[in-house]
Amino acid sequence: MTAGQADQDTAPGNTSTQETPAADTSEAKEATGAGGWIADALREHEEHERSEQAIISPAGQPGGGHSHDRGRVERRQLPMADREQQVLDRIDRARRRRPRVREERITMSHGAGGKATHTLIEAVFLDAFRNPLLEPLEDAARLHINGSRVALTTDSYVVSPLFFPGGDIGDLAINGTVNDLSMAGAVPLYLSAGFILEEGFPVADLSRITESMRAAADAAGVQVVTGDTKVVERGKADGCYINTAGVGIIERDVSLGVANAQPGDAIIVSGMIGDHGVTIMLARGELDIEADLESDTAALNGLVAGLLDAVPGVRALRDATRGGVATILNEIAKSADVGVLVNEDDIPVRDVVRGASELLGIDPMYVACEGRMVVVVDGSQADSAIAALRAHPLGEQSAIIGHVTDGPAGIVQLKTAFGGTRIVDLLVGDPLPRIC
Amino acid sequence: MRFVDEFRDADKAHALAAKITALCEPGRQYKFMEVCGGHTHTIYKHGLEDYLPESITLVHGPGCPVCVIPMGRVDDAIHLASQPDVIMTSFGDMMRVPGGDGSFFDAKARGTDIRMVYSPLDSLKIAKNNPDKRVVFMAIGFETTAPSTAMTLLRAQAAGLTNFSIFANHVTIIPAIKAILDSPDLRLDGFIGPGHVSTVIGCRPYEFIARDYGKPVVVAGFEPLDILQSIYMLMIQMSEGRSEIENQYSRVVPWDGNMVALKVINETMELRPYFEWRGLGFISHSALSVREKYASFDAELLFDVPGVRVADPKACQCGEVLKGVLKPWECKVFGTACTPETPIGTCMVSPEGACAAYYNYGRMNRNRVMETEVSRA
């Protein structure tokens, strides 16, 4: 008899399946979490619970629910669906509370582009630097300088491996910053480039990187006009990190932002999603999967110019980098306080990307792209937007994937290809870090 | 995409759903437990509950390997990882599981060397490449992953490695199902049997459920149509008054299991007298440890394991959720104090956990879904 089968023939009455070594039970300490965050979270929960008793106790029972116990009894008496609804409302309020970083130290989740990243940005960076220009948390800040509208952005690149099918850290560093400026409706002009190099890094690799940066800058029509170099001891960095910042000028009379989204607007993606992220995961060679796939890294300024020339009703543009399309959709729903409904069937994904994601247990909706954008456009102009995008080589596979609704605010819903419905929330953890 | 899309055909789903609904007796409520966390994930990811009539309730069982790991065990693992020259390795799912004092991610941020691997064999590679380090693999999972741990042990021995060991946390599914069946506060009508576990142990071990408890079991695959079909098969059994073990997943699951896999498990591991399950408490003969013959690869013997025991926070109701007594949203702290980003209970940690699946995908009742569609139209 093998271990796996050992219990198959035991009659249920013959063994006590839940024996608890009595002496141990009393010794168990109650969990507090690192830095006592569990205790903190529970205390916070209790405070809110108390303050919400009045809201939770059902209408039509005046005076009820002030005592904690009475409130609970009344909740139990409600029909199931109403109780579920109340819990969902309570969660909704909890989600809108001011974010707090509970961890004592930075973990990899803080860089993954999901919830932890958002919490860190809002609770630490926004808190420290708060000003009206930063607050929209768009891809680039929009500044007024001597009567001109200028966009400013910065981004750091730590991708591993440095070279991958379809590109390398160099063209990524140019295209990413060009795209962040383009998403603000700006014409990208000048970039800076800062290098952090690890002792021992091959000069030939650095030349290869700078060569591809030059080519990418030429293709996008921008110039690298200032820079910086630092070298750190072996082991203090991973070969080569690059930071680029960029400025562009906003000449058009547009004010793009996800907060502009309105019910009835169409949501478009400009091409196949997830190519870059899956390419990087496969290029790391840890998975022993081989596929014919290249990163989608590309400068989108040409595509954006064509779109904005043709369609006045564009409300927002976002490049779907870390966190993928799902993260952008959540940002739309949250910033504009609207619902978003997308159709899984309409989302363009390559079979190879879908297959690899299926094997890895990840959802292509969360996988990074480096040359795709999400467009929010007035619903009545959706078709002309698609026509304008498809006229450009980078937008040939553009597709309308869904709409902005006045449905549950702040929530993204997906109509699955299977015919069901589910929520698409921000991603919590990312076990595959450093993809851009 | 071939071999996947066939199992996600919405037309077939509608047809099956209609057949299921036709079998429901008016006024009767049906409660089926899907034992496996993979099924829970499929159900929410594809919005499967939208297809089911209101009278059928799916209860999410304990078959999520990381959900049942007690917090003390995570603390023990972090203690091991903090020893000099240790590299701790485990699956990605394990990284965020909270212990009494934080997760692997937190421990990693404090400076311990914890690495994510896709297979225990990757840990062997790390051991070979780092001869001056002691590499520990935290082995988790049901009979599904136990064979790969067993093979890794055998290979480590064949390679004569002296710096590799296993911290075994493998659990077995049958005692957990039995504990649930013996739980007084639960009334189930049948089980959607675990698919992956059954590829190893086969269908025979479930026979006592039909024989002694009179409940039907249908071992199911992981695509949405698999699950709908297995619910249909359960409903047919119910309507005909039968309770038998049936295999919906016969394209993968052999009735007698995988003898080779069972042999290597048996060669390298043995049943523990008892093991603590998070939420379910101590269950006898429910977990595996490394056999004495392989003692030189047993981290529990090589290191001083403190045997930390951590009680769940009183507000945490993971136990009731794991047994299906409570729906995830009925837990007091669900979604407010306990969320996927700050999971107090393990049901919230893994995407296969009932609470995380409900929070991430299902947090919307059917009425609200319908309202959205009306407002869109």
Your description of this structure?
The complex is a heterodimer of chains A (about 425) and B (about 375). Chain A has about 425 residues and is α+β, with helices and mostly antiparallel strands. Among the domains of chain A are: about 110 residues, PurM-like, N-terminal domain (60s Ribosomal Protein L30, Chain: A); about 170 residues, Phosphoribosyl-aminoimidazole Synthetase, Chain A, domain 2, CATH 3.90.650. Chain A contains twelve helices and 15 strands. Chain A has a seven-stranded mixed sheet with strand order 10-12-9-13-11-14-15. In chain A, strands 2-3-8-6-7 form a five-stranded mixed sheet, covered by helices on one side. In chain A, a hairpin with a 5-residue loop joins strand 14 and strand 15. With about 375 residues, chain B is of the alpha/beta class. Chain B contains 15 helices and 14 strands. Chain B has a five-stranded parallel sheet with strand order 2-1-7-8-9. A four-stranded parallel sheet of chain B has the order 4-3-5-6, with helices on both faces. A two-stranded antiparallel ribbon of chain B has the order 10-13. Chain B starts with 9 loop residues before the first helix and ends with a helix.
Keywords:
heterodimer; A: 436 residues; alpha+beta; 60s Ribosomal Protein L30, Chain: A; 7-stranded mixed sheet; 12 helices; disordered C terminus; B: 377 residues; alpha/beta; 5-stranded parallel sheet
Annotated CATH topology of one domain in chain A: Phosphoribosyl-aminoimidazole Synthetase, Chain A, domain 2
Number of strands of chain B: 14
Side by side, the strands of the main sheet of chain A go: 10-12-9-13-11-14-15
- Unreliable stretches of chain B (pLDDT < 50, length at least 5) are 365-377
Sequence of secondary-structure elements of chain A: HEHHHHEEEEHEHEEEHHEHEHEHEEE
Strand content of the residues of chain A, in percent? Answer: 15-25%
Number of strands of chain A: 15
Mean pLDDT level of chain A: 84
Which architecture of one domain in chain A would the CATH scheme give at its second level? Alpha-Beta Complex
Structural class of chain B: alpha/beta
- Point out poorly predicted stretches of chain A: 1-26, 58-76, 431-436
Distance between the termini of chain A: 51 Å
Number of helices of chain A: 12
Output the CATH homologous superfamily of one domain in chain A: PurM-like C-terminal domain
* Range of helix content of chain A: 25-40%
* General form of chain A: globular
State the separation between the terminal residues of chain B, measured CA to CA: 30 Å
Radius of gyration of chain B: 21 Å
Q: State the shape of chain B.
A: globular
